[in-house]
Amino acid sequence: MLSRLTRPQALLVCVLPVVALLATAAFAPLPFTVAQPGLTADVLGKNKGTQVITISGAPVRATKGQLRMVTIEATGPDTPVHLGDVLGNWFRTDRAVMPHDSVYPSGGTVKEIEKHNTQQMRQSQDAATQAALNYLHLSGDDVKVKLRLADVGGPSAGLLFTLGIIDKLDGDGSGGDLTGGRAIAGTGTIDAHGAVGAVGGVALKTQAARRDGATVFLVPKDECSDAQSELPKGLRLVPVSTLKGTVTALKALQTGKGSVPSC
After folding, report:
1. Residue 157's Cα: distance from chain center in Å?
2. Which residues contact 209 (CB under 8 A, 6 or more apart)?
3. What pTM did the predictor assign?
4. Fewer CB within 10 Å: N-end or C-end of the chain?
5. Which domains are delineated in the chain?
């Protein structure tokens, strides 16, 4: 014979599984990572006491201004992110909740991910060097470039490395700086032919750039809308898609002659 549950008992029976489910969700790790504005580094100068760009085999000139590559900092690949972390950072403008796999390769250990990021940085540096030398019509047999940037992985500094090499080699042929003496920041991958690619995280990178004194930010053209979403006051966006177009835009910005693209 079945006994009838009272209303409070029935409610308790229904509520307990929901409470248990919510408690599980609150403490279970979720497939997200939390990112924030990271470090920036002037590729024309030194980083942690080491010259970022070293060139031999061709005359190198002293440069003015800055070309700052920018990064984001994310929770570690094996750091658990819980519901409270997601809710607490979702509406912050200086944080971004991102799918874990969009930041870190899936299925890899911490060491494997670090190795992957290091390989991407090395490939990016090689492509940046080749793109710069191709642009300047110089041979890698004669001109040697070494790029050193500690504690940074991935390919997103490619464009800034390339511009730094060109600036040091007087790539515009005028004896003037590509920066026009400004603090210019930016992000973007680059290939040996000078094509600029998207990188992600640009809304956080603009914040890092402005924090460290940049007034101009070079952004891959396809990421204009993302960069505009949380654009800090006093930072001008310049969309780019090719190395040639980037140098042309910087010359126009420097001289005040010609048009400078905008988002």
Report:
1. 7
2. 40, 68, 70, 185, 186, 217, 232, 235
3. 0.84
4. N
5. 37-79+121-255 (3.30.230)
